[in-house]
C-alpha cells in the first residue's frame, strides 16, 4: 500500500495542525465566553491529535494513534471537570464571561 | 521546502486534503467568531467531522470512528447541554474591548509566523516516505498495542477518569454543612 | 512500580471507606497506608528496573523524589482532618483525590514513556483543578479553579503539542529510545521544538516567569489546604519532572550537538533571574499571606531552575532544595491553616500578636520563613548554598550574584510576617490546640532542621 | 636597687593612696580628717623627695627603676619605669613642696565646701599624676602623667559643677590640652619610628651615636615641632593659651598649684627633658623662641586691663611661661628651669594671696570692688607685695635673677626678641602693681556687708603664704649670676657644655640695669595711674578703643569659636540632618524603589485571564524564536 | 576537654533558660554564662599549657565542610571577651523587668553561643553559619523588647537585618568561590593556601569588605547603627556594640586579610582612609546628637573606624592594637550603655537636653560614669589607651598623616564625650530624684572599670596571648 504522505507531504499536515493549533490559541485569547474558550482548547487538542495521526503514518507506527486515545480521554476528563467548574461559577455569578473573573488580582 | 500545490495535476487525494483542510480551518475560525454559542458548537462539530475525514484519509478508520463518537457524540453534547442549561445566547456575550482583540490577533499572527518560519527553515524531509506495507493501524494491531505495551497507561487513564468523576461529583454535590 | 500500584489501591480504598461509612478512620488509615507505601518505596530504593515495556522506570531519582512526595502527602492528609471538619460527607473524596494526585506525581517522576508522563501530569492537574474549585459556594474558589483550569489546559495543550513533535521526530514515546536517537546528528528540528514546548508547559506548572500569572490568583483563591498542596507537592512534582525530562531525554547533549545549548542556557538563566526577581519584588507588597507565599514560590522556582544549568550533577541538589522548600512550606501552611481557620481571608493582620498568644506556632512559622529566606541552620540555607556552589562551579557567577540580591529582597517580605507576629498586638483569641496541625508543624520543621544539620543524608542519595 | 624601687613607689603611691582613701572614705571621715590625710600624703612624698634629692646630690647618679613591660610594639619596648635624675628630683621638690603648702592652705580655704574630701582626693590624684609625669622613664609614662594632670585640671576647674560656665571652662581646658596631646603623640610616633625607642636614656644614647642622614634630621625637626605643640597645649602658649585664663574658674588653690606652679610647667619640663632632641632642631628652637616671646607680650598686654584679680594673675602666668619658652628657644634650658622655680614660688604665693583676698571678700574677684585691704589683711598684703616685687624683677628678689638671665640670653641671640621680652617685663611690673594698688590701697569699694566682714585669713592660710613669700624673696639664690648652683646641678643633663656661663661684663650689667629700670618704670606708671590719680578701671560697657580689644583678649576666643568650634558644630548639624538622613534615605530608597516596582507590578497582575495568556503566548514566542531563529 | 564544651554549655544554657520559666530565667542565664566563662578560663589555662583544645570533625562530605573549631590566641581572646561580657550584660539587666523573660535571656545566651562560634570557627562555612545565627537573636531582642515607637523600631530593625544580611550573603558567594579554588574544601587552612590572581582577590576582598563594613560598621555603611542602638533594649545594644561589632573586626583579621593579601596590600590606603574618615565623621556627628544612646552609637562608629584602620595597616602593631582596642572598646561601650540604662531606669528618658544635675544626687554613679567616659576617650592608664596608642602608632608607620587624622579622635572624642558628660551629669541639681546606684549596678560597673584599669597598666597577658596567632596570620599575608 502506498504511503499517502507521498502525495500530500508531512509538511502540509504540520502546517495544517500548526494553523489549527494557533487558531485554538487565538480563540482562547479572543473570546471572553468561557464555553467558547473551552471549545478553542478542544480545537488545540484536535490539532495535535491530527498531527499524531499524521506522524503515525509517517513512521508507520501505531503508537501515535494509541496516544490519541489517551489524549481523547484527557480531553473528555478535562471538559467534564471544566464544565463542572463552569456550572458552579454560573450558579454563583450568573455569568460565564471570564472578564467577570477578576476578583483575584494584585 | 514548502509543497506548492499543483492544482493542475492534483491527485484526488490532494484535492480531498485541500478541501478538508479548508473546511477544518474555516469552521475553526467560525467557531471562534460566531456570536451565538450554539452556532459555535455546530461549527465545531463540523470541524471535528472534517478532522475525522483527515483520519479517514490517513487510513485510520477506527480512530475516525472513535473520534466522532467521543468528540461529536460526547464532548459536543456536553457543551451543548451546558449551553442550553445556561440559556446562553448572543446577547449574553459581553462586549470585547478592542485591545483584547488586537492582542489576540497580534499574538495569533506572531505565533503562526514563528512556528511556520521555524518549520520552513528546518531541514526538508527528503526522499520517499517509506511504506513497510505492514499493517499498523487496524483495530487488531491497535488493540494489541493498547492492551499489551500500553496496558499501564491504559489503566492509568482509568484513574484519570476516576479522578475526573470524583472531582465532578465533588464540585456539584450539595452537602449538609454542619457549621 | 509497586509504589504506584499501592498508592492507587490506597486511593480506591479511601473511596470504599465512604461506602462502608467509616469516615472517622479514614485519615489514620490513609496515613498508615502512606507510611506503608513509604516503607515499600524505601525498599525499592537503589534498584534500577523498568516495568511493563518500560512504562515505569524505577531509579534512585524516582524513588527518592517519590519518597518526598509521599512524605508531603502524609502531612497534607494529616492536615485534612481539621480542614475538612465541616465537610464530613466529602472527606473521603478529598483524601482520595489527594492520593490519586500523589499517584500522578509518582508516575511523573518514574515515567519510562511519555504517555505515562502525560497521563500523570493530567491526573495531577485535574485533581488540582478540582481541589482549587472545591469550595463550591465560594466565588473566590470558583474563580481560582476556573483560572487554573483554563490556563492549565492551555498549557496541557502545549505540552501535548510538544510531545507530538517529539514523537514526530523520534517515532517513539519510549524514553530510552528517544534518548538514544537524540544523540544522533541527523535530528529533525521537531525534537528540540517539541522539547522546548514541553518545557514551556512545565514551566507553567512550576510557575516560572513569564508563565507565572496564574499562581498568585489561584493560590489566593483556593482553599488554604489546596494552596499548601500546590505550593509544596505540585511545585516539587513539576520541577522534578521537568528535571527528569530534560536530563533523561538527553536534551542538553542533543542541543549541544546542534549548537543550541548556549541559547537554551541563556533562556534558563533569563527565566531563572526573571522568576526570582518578579517573585520577590511582587511579594513585597502583598498583604494576603497565601498570595505572598505564591510569589515566594515563584521566586523559589527561579532558584530551582538554576539546577538545570548543571543538569548532569545537580539532581541531589534539586532533591535537597525541593525537600527543604517543601518542608518549610508545609510547616508554614500548617500554621496558616491554624491561624486562618474561621477567617474570611489569610490577611496578614490575622497573624498579629501570634508570638504572644501562641509562641510555639509563631516560632515554627518563623523558623519556616527563615528557612525559605535561607538563614543558616535551617535547611533552606544549605539548599541555597549547594545550589550556589553548583552554579558557581558551572561558571555562572553573575546568576549567583543576582540570586543573592534576590535572597536579600526576599527577607523583606518574610520578615513582614515575622514582624506582624512579634511586634503587633494580638487582635483575637484563638482557642484549641488541634493535635494534627501541631504534629505536622512540629514534625515538618524538625525534619527541616534535621536536614539542615545533616545535609549529607539527602544530598548524597543521588550522588 | 630594691630600695630605690620602694622609694620610688612610695613617692608615687602615697598621693594615690591619699586619693583612694579620700574617694572611698572621705565623706565619712569628715572634712578636717580628709584634708589632713590629703596633706600628709603629699608631705610624705615631699620627704621622700628630700631623701632622693640627698641621694642624687651625693652620688650624682640617676636612679632608674623598671617595674614591668607595659605596651608592646614591634620595634619599641615600652616599660612602666621611673627615671629619677637631677631634673626630675628638682621638679619633684617644688611639686611636692609647693603641693604640700597648698594642701595645707586648702584645709582652711575649702573648709566651707561640702565636697572638701573630693577636693582633696582630686588634689592628691593630681600630685600622683604630676609625679608620674616627672619621674617617668620614657615618653609614654610621661604621657600618662601628662594626660592625668589634664584630667585633674578638668576635674578641679569644674569643681563647682553646678555652674555650667565653669564646666565649659573645664571642658575647654581639657580639649585644648588634648590638641596639644595629639601633637605630643605624633612627636612620639616620629621619635619612636626614627630611633626605635622612647626611653629617655636610650633615646639620648641613640641620638648621640646615630649616623646622621637628612631624613633623620628632618624627622627630628618634625618630631620636635610636634612635641612643642604638645608643650604649647599644656603650658598655654599661643595658639593654645586661651584655656588658662578660663581655668581660673576653679578654686584658687587649684589655680595656684596647677595653673601656676606645676602643671603648666610640664611643657617646659618635657622640652628640657628632651633637650638633646631640640638641640638638633635649631629651626624649631627659633619657632619656640618666637612663640614664647609673642605669647609673653600678648598675654602681658591683655593682663594690662583685666579687672578680675585671678585673670590678671592668669595672664601674667601665660606671659611668664612665654618668657620661659623664650629661654628654651635659645637652648638655655637651665635658665628656663630657673625661672620655672622662681615663678612657682612667687606665682603660687600671688595666687594664694589672691585666694586669701577672695576668701575674705566671700568670693568677690573683681578688683574694682576691692581696695584698701592692706589694713584688714596685712599678712596677705605683705606676702603678695614681696611676690609682686619678685615678678616685677626688682633686684635681689628671686624673679630678678631668673628673668634677667632670660633677657640676657635673649639679648645674646636676638635683639628683637630681647626687646619684646623686655617690654613684656615692663608691662608685668605695671599690671602687677596695678593689681596691688587696686586691691590693697585706697578705700574699700565693695559693699558694706563685705566691709563688715573683712578679716585676715587663718593661720593655715597665712603660713603657706609666708613660706612662699620667703622663697619668692630668696629663691634666686640657687642660681646667682656667675656662680650658679643650679647650672652645676643640672649640668649632667645637657649635651652642650652646660650653661655657657655668661661672663658678667659691662653689657650684662647694662642690661641688668635696663631691666631694673624697666621694672621700676612699670611700677611707677601703675603708681601714678592708680595711686596718684586714683583711677579705677571703667565698668565693662564703658571700655572703648584699644583697651576694649585688650579687655576682650583680642577677641581670640571669639575668633576660635567662629573659626573652629562653630564650623564643627555646623558641620555636625549638617552631617546629622542631611548626610545621615540622606544615607539612610538611600538605603531605604532601595527598598522604596522595590516597593514601587511591586506596586506597578500589581497593576500588571490584573486578574484578567486574557492578559495572562497573552503574556504566556508572547513569552512562548520569544523563547522559541530566540532559540530557533536567533542565529 | 576542648572548645566545643563552651558552645555546648551555652547552647544548653539557652534552652535551660527558656524552660526554667520567667522567674528563674535571669539567674539561670547568669549561671550558665558564668559557667561558660569558667570553662573558657580553664581552657585558656590548658591552651597556655600547650594542650590542643581545637576540634575538627567531618560534617558534610560534598562540598567538604567540617565542624572545625580552632582556638588560637586570637580566637580565645575574643571568646574571653564575649564570655566575660555576657555575664556582665546579663547581670546588668537584673534591674529591669522584662516581659517573657525566659525568651529574652534564652536569646541572649543563644547569641553568645553564636558569637563564640563565630570566633572559634575554622571552617569558612561553619563560620558563616555562626555569623548569620548571631543575627537572629539580636533581631528579636531589638524587635520585641526594644523601646520607642513601634513602627520606627520595626523599620530600624528590619533595615538592620536586611542590611547586614545583604553584606554577608556576598561573603557567602566569596566563600563558595574560594572553596572551589580550594578543591571544594572550606577549611581555613585550605582557603589560606588558595592562589588567586590579583583580580580575583580584589573581588573577594570586596565581597568580604561589604559584609564586614556593614557589620563593623565603616562609613558609609553605618546608617543602620544609630537607630538600632537607640531602639534596641540596652542589653541588645550592649551585645551589638560590645561583641557583635567585634565579629566584623575580628573577621577582617582572621579571614579577609589573609585570604586576599594582595588586594589588601594594593588598596590598603583606601581602606585605612575609610576607617579614618569614619573616625572623623562619627566624632563630628556625635557632637550634636540629642539622644544619649545615639551619641554613644556614633562614638562607637568613630572608635571602630580607628580599629578597622589599624587592622588594614597589615602590620603587627596595627593588628595587635586593633585587637587590644576591640577588647577595650567592648568593655567601655558596654559600660557606657549600661550607664545610659541606669539613667533611663530613673528618669525614663535619654534625651540629653532633659538630663543634667545628676552629679549632686549620685556622686558614686558620676565617678563611675566619668571613668568610663575617660576610658572611652583613651586616657592613658586605661586599657583603651594601650589599644589606641598602638593603632595610631601603626598608622603613623604607614603615613604620618593617617596618624594625625586618626588622632583627631583624641580631640573630637574628648569634645563630644565631655560635652555629653557635662550636659548629662553636671549642672544644676535635677528636679527629678536620682536614686543612687544599687549594689548590682555597682558591681557591673566595678567589674568593667577594674578590667579597664588593670589591663590599662598591665596588658601583657592579652598581648602575649594574641601575638603568636597574629604573627601567624601576618606570615600568611606576607607569604608571597
TrEMBL record, chain A:
<dbReference type="GO" id="GO:0030964">
    <property type="term" value="C:NADH dehydrogenase complex"/>
</dbReference>
<keyword id="KW-1133">Transmembrane helix</keyword>
<keyword id="KW-1003">Cell membrane</keyword>
<feature type="transmembrane region" description="Helical">
    <location>
        <begin position="35"/>
        <end position="55"/>
    </location>
</feature>
<keyword id="KW-0812">Transmembrane</keyword>
<comment type="function">
    <text>NDH-1 shuttles electrons from NADH, via FMN and iron-sulfur (Fe-S) centers, to quinones in the respiratory chain. The immediate electron acceptor for the enzyme in this species is believed to be a menaquinone. Couples the redox reaction to proton translocation (for every two electrons transferred, four hydrogen ions are translocated across the cytoplasmic membrane), and thus conserves the redox energy in a proton gradient.</text>
</comment>
<keyword id="KW-0813">Transport</keyword>
<dbReference type="GO" id="GO:0042773">
    <property type="term" value="P:ATP synthesis coupled electron transport"/>
</dbReference>
<comment type="function">
    <text>NDH-1 shuttles electrons from NADH, via FMN and iron-sulfur (Fe-S) centers, to quinones in the respiratory chain. The immediate electron acceptor for the enzyme in this species is believed to be ubiquinone. Couples the redox reaction to proton translocation (for every two electrons transferred, four hydrogen ions are translocated across the cytoplasmic membrane), and thus conserves the redox energy in a proton gradient.</text>
</comment>
<protein>
    <recommendedName>
        <fullName>NADH-quinone oxidoreductase subunit K</fullName>
        <ecNumber>7.1.1.-</ecNumber>
    </recommendedName>
</protein>
<comment type="similarity">
    <text>Belongs to the complex I subunit 4L family.</text>
</comment>
<keyword id="KW-0874">Quinone</keyword>
From TrEMBL, chain B:
<dbReference type="GO" id="GO:0008137">
    <property type="term" value="F:NADH dehydrogenase (ubiquinone) activity"/>
</dbReference>
<dbReference type="GO" id="GO:0048038">
    <property type="term" value="F:quinone binding"/>
</dbReference>
<feature type="transmembrane region" description="Helical">
    <location>
        <begin position="64"/>
        <end position="87"/>
    </location>
</feature>
<feature type="transmembrane region" description="Helical">
    <location>
        <begin position="150"/>
        <end position="171"/>
    </location>
</feature>
<feature type="transmembrane region" description="Helical">
    <location>
        <begin position="99"/>
        <end position="120"/>
    </location>
</feature>
<dbReference type="GO" id="GO:0005886">
    <property type="term" value="C:plasma membrane"/>
</dbReference>
<dbReference type="InterPro" id="IPR042106">
    <property type="entry name" value="Nuo/plastoQ_OxRdtase_6_NuoJ"/>
</dbReference>
<feature type="transmembrane region" description="Helical">
    <location>
        <begin position="12"/>
        <end position="33"/>
    </location>
</feature>
<keyword id="KW-1003">Cell membrane</keyword>
<keyword id="KW-0874">Quinone</keyword>
<keyword id="KW-0472">Membrane</keyword>
<comment type="function">
    <text>NDH-1 shuttles electrons from NADH, via FMN and iron-sulfur (Fe-S) centers, to quinones in the respiratory chain. Couples the redox reaction to proton translocation (for every two electrons transferred, four hydrogen ions are translocated across the cytoplasmic membrane), and thus conserves the redox energy in a proton gradient.</text>
</comment>
UniProtKB/TrEMBL annotation, chain C:
<feature type="transmembrane region" description="Helical">
    <location>
        <begin position="267"/>
        <end position="285"/>
    </location>
</feature>
<keyword id="KW-0813">Transport</keyword>
<feature type="transmembrane region" description="Helical">
    <location>
        <begin position="189"/>
        <end position="213"/>
    </location>
</feature>
<keyword id="KW-1133">Transmembrane helix</keyword>
<keyword id="KW-1003">Cell membrane</keyword>
<comment type="function">
    <text>NDH-1 shuttles electrons from NADH, via FMN and iron-sulfur (Fe-S) centers, to quinones in the respiratory chain. The immediate electron acceptor for the enzyme in this species is believed to be a menaquinone. Couples the redox reaction to proton translocation (for every two electrons transferred, four hydrogen ions are translocated across the cytoplasmic membrane), and thus conserves the redox energy in a proton gradient.</text>
</comment>
<dbReference type="InterPro" id="IPR010096">
    <property type="entry name" value="NADH-Q_OxRdtase_suN/2"/>
</dbReference>
<dbReference type="GO" id="GO:0048038">
    <property type="term" value="F:quinone binding"/>
</dbReference>
<feature type="domain" description="NADH:quinone oxidoreductase/Mrp antiporter transmembrane">
    <location>
        <begin position="113"/>
        <end position="410"/>
    </location>
</feature>
<dbReference type="GO" id="GO:0050136">
    <property type="term" value="F:NADH dehydrogenase (quinone) (non-electrogenic) activity"/>
</dbReference>
<protein>
    <recommendedName>
        <fullName>NADH-quinone oxidoreductase subunit N</fullName>
        <ecNumber>7.1.1.-</ecNumber>
    </recommendedName>
</protein>
<feature type="transmembrane region" description="Helical">
    <location>
        <begin position="225"/>
        <end position="247"/>
    </location>
</feature>
From TrEMBL, chain E:
<keyword id="KW-1133">Transmembrane helix</keyword>
<feature type="transmembrane region" description="Helical">
    <location>
        <begin position="128"/>
        <end position="148"/>
    </location>
</feature>
<protein>
    <submittedName>
        <fullName>NADH-quinone oxidoreductase subunit M</fullName>
    </submittedName>
</protein>
<dbReference type="GO" id="GO:0008137">
    <property type="term" value="F:NADH dehydrogenase (ubiquinone) activity"/>
</dbReference>
<dbReference type="GO" id="GO:0048039">
    <property type="term" value="F:ubiquinone binding"/>
</dbReference>
<feature type="transmembrane region" description="Helical">
    <location>
        <begin position="295"/>
        <end position="314"/>
    </location>
</feature>
<feature type="transmembrane region" description="Helical">
    <location>
        <begin position="439"/>
        <end position="458"/>
    </location>
</feature>
<feature type="domain" description="NADH:quinone oxidoreductase/Mrp antiporter transmembrane">
    <location>
        <begin position="123"/>
        <end position="408"/>
    </location>
</feature>
<feature type="transmembrane region" description="Helical">
    <location>
        <begin position="365"/>
        <end position="386"/>
    </location>
</feature>
<feature type="transmembrane region" description="Helical">
    <location>
        <begin position="267"/>
        <end position="288"/>
    </location>
</feature>
<dbReference type="GO" id="GO:0015990">
    <property type="term" value="P:electron transport coupled proton transport"/>
</dbReference>
<dbReference type="GO" id="GO:0012505">
    <property type="term" value="C:endomembrane system"/>
</dbReference>
